[in-house]
## 1
Amino acid sequence: MNKSLRPAVIAGNWKMNKTPAQTTELINEMKPLVADAACDVVLCVPFVDLQAALAAAEGSNIKIGAQNCHFEKSGAFTGEISADMLKELGVTYVIIGHSERRTYFGETDVTVNKRTLAALNAGLTAIVCVGEYLEQREQGVTNELVALQTKIALQNVTEGDLSKIIIAYEPVWAIGTGRTATADQANEVCAVIRETIAGLYGKAAADSVTIQYGGSMNAANADELVGKPDVDGGLIGGASLVAKDFAVIVAAASK
Ligand code: PGA
């Protein structure tokens, strides 16, 4: 398995944190710390922070993403944001199907697929999240479940569009809990996702897809996690709100 076939991507997921003014401040603090990154660096911020983030990141190597988008282009969907709206702002990435959206906001594998297709249609790169609950891990169904989530998320995604897909493997029990998957657990499931993609599109295509790990990745454990052959970076929650910690993770993925 050759990691050089695909970029490592470290993406921060700020969740519902930071105001626009705080966004400017934090990105200004991060910029010099990640300027030498040899991996892609993305910050996915709340919708209302996007313009401040884009302005602060301009001219730097930090790319800006949103945390969700709707699957329709426009219409009577109060409170929703379309992929075209994000695109016009200058946003280039969007997280789709984060477990918090699946758990609290009724996101299903089918809506994850619809949102993924909408993101691709608008020319955005979709960071598609998959992952099991603790109970499912204990039942021994993690690999089948994650393979199924991946397959459904990728329905009608063409091979040509795979370059705009990142899969984030995020075991739900590891998110925001401080309980990280071991590097071997993370690598095993990332490899299952790659095999699943290989089954759909062929091995060469699968080798070119970035597959991240997410779930309590931090400055202390990033090195080991991103050092694994099938782990191509990370989706970082809590540690992406602390500039120096985020920079350590970016440095780990730059090796
Ligand atoms: P965490 O969040 O790093 O705070 O566990 C990861 C995520 O939810 O993407």
## 2
Amino acid sequence: MAIRMRVHVAGIVQGVGFRPFVYRQAVARGLAGHVRNLGDAGVEIEVEGPSEAVRDFLRALREKAPPLAELSGLKSEELPPRGEAEFRILKSKPGGEGGGTIPPDIAICEPCLADIADRKSRYFGYWATSCTDCGPRFTVIESLPYDRPRTSMRDFPMCEDCRREYEDPLDRRYHAQTIACPACGPRLLYLEGGRELPGDPIDLAAAALKAGKIVAIKGIGGTHLACDATREEVVAELRRRLGRPGQPFALMAPLSLAKKFARCREEDERLLRSPRRPIMVLPKRGEGLAPSVAPGLHTVGFMLPYSGLHHLLFRQVDFPLVMTSANFPGRPMLIENEQILSELAGVADGFLLHDRRIVARCDDSVVRWAGGKPVFLRRSRGWVPQPIALDLGEVPLLALGAELNVTFALYHRGKVFLSQHIGNVEHLETEAFLREAIEHFLAITGAPWPEVVACDLHPGFSTTRLAEELGEEVIRVQHHLAHVAGLAGEHGLSQVVGIAVDGYGYGEDGTAWGGEVILWREGEWRRAGSLLPVPMPGGDLATLRPGRMAASFLLAAGLDPREGGLGERELAVVARQIERGINCPLTSSAGRFLDAVAAWLGICRERTYEGEPAMRLEAAASWGEPAPLEPVIREQGGRLVVDTVALFRELHRLRAGGASVSDVAATAQAALARGLARLAIQVAKGEGVGAVGLTGGAAVNDALATVVREEAERAGFRYVQHERVPPGDGGLSFGQLTQGAYTIAKQDFA
Ligand code: ZN
Ligand code: ZN
Ligand code: FE
């Protein structure tokens, strides 16, 4: 018996190949009806045929949906049959298209991989094979609506065969805007010494990598520098040429190979294999990797091959590859062939390039586990520009972040679009990229130019100046307030006590904050507690030279400051700066406390990249056991403080009593987290707030997050941490938006 059903599907069902998928499922079962895009409201399907086939179709909707589709609601109702014979894809309702339907770039799918491997397929060995289920999106699209002429694929007119598949609703490549084949699509080329070499570019690149050369590889949304990750002399040479002595390099390898070098649990594997293909930070395993891959760390970042190009390379290469973004520290990734060739002339020996333009660069995303959940170190490829649903009112907003690891965030009609990783906006090139990326986002989201722009409180940041330039109205948000507001926004909380464990943020009193407990209620806030402020001798210099922070803590604790590892001269200067209060601001930063411990323990005395001392401390601590140390909490200056100087003294006693460096490192982390957690719990109890949360750059530290979580839950509070945006400054713009929206709402009432 024939029945007819109307099905309404909500969730992420647009721009992910969902309608062609529905069409194929219906036609394969001989069903009639239609599918139609309803814009923000989702997709409507009407389907008619034998009841068994209709039910089977409904099952397939859930079970076989395209990799990027996320079905959040599936409501169906029965209608009287109409006796239709055909299934059609109807035109969208007016206003149905647009508004954040651009998907992120995702990894090549299994059927496309099979095409590449199939000698009889016309895609055999073709590096840029893709379909409606996979391939680049965000990085090739110039503007809405998403159609080939508005992508960088317009430079490659389709051949007859591609055209036929593109127009066939039953084909996997029906309306796949990135469809391309060896006959019509973008081509690879391999260069050495400024000349293109004859031969297969992938063979040539693979041979160069095997020979220990460094190869620049232009990929889907960016460029990598690649080399053999098992050969120390090769990796060390890459570090020397890049001027990047310590910052860990990400690696790429197929799963079976990656597992030889990193411990990988089932839940890691699931994330690694997801079509978003992030870099996962995993514990190192064995001794096979070059020590220079991640000096002094117990972890290593791995990602799986995510494009046809990568898979073809790994057919010939049987070792893991360093795959690090091709940029100089803090600057944007190079994406134009001319620039890649000229700027990397002294870095790469060979160049594997192609002739497709990258419209928007997008670095790899980085994920690790902390506090029992995956957290973002960087949210970029695979996620951007997928919006985060959040109702912040009617007013469109733009937020620009702080200065390091900048992302911006754009709010329009219930959606927050968080940008790709931009970089350190202290450099001119990075600021140019920021401006360009804002324009691109406006073009692909259809959002209006926001009149209200939120930024950091720091007067010297270039993002603050840019906000003044772009915004009719500017809302300045204190750094850690933004971190905490983001936590509230992400979890839909009306009140929370947020712990920000962070590096540096400009405080309301002009001092350097960074270990804060903030009581937040619907946009109202109070600095309820912090770490004890200590002198930061030399200001920013104390960040670069953690030995200065060690000396500061040792002096404050009445201990021998020479144990911080500074030379006699520098120590004398530091002592004078502290004594006379010259060039010596106060800081309550958790990062600076961890720096001091790392320097004092001899783990890291020279910082070569942001967060290095704390990361090395975490590595040392991973081999140790924390002692049960109870930090002192007391009142000072109208708020509660965790006495980090007393804590430092206790750590010193522990070490003097024979505890190992690893045990003391583990104790320092755990005690710091416990102190802040206890303080936050005390505030939450007093104020009747039910949720305690953790945010800030150091919140990616698993030991810190785990302790705060355990303390909060044991005391009966709900514990929250960031799940959809990075806890570090890569998520700051999201928090600025949240806080900005509350500020606007209050103005409306006034
Ligand atoms: Zn595919
Ligand atoms: Zn073609
Ligand atoms: Fe921060």
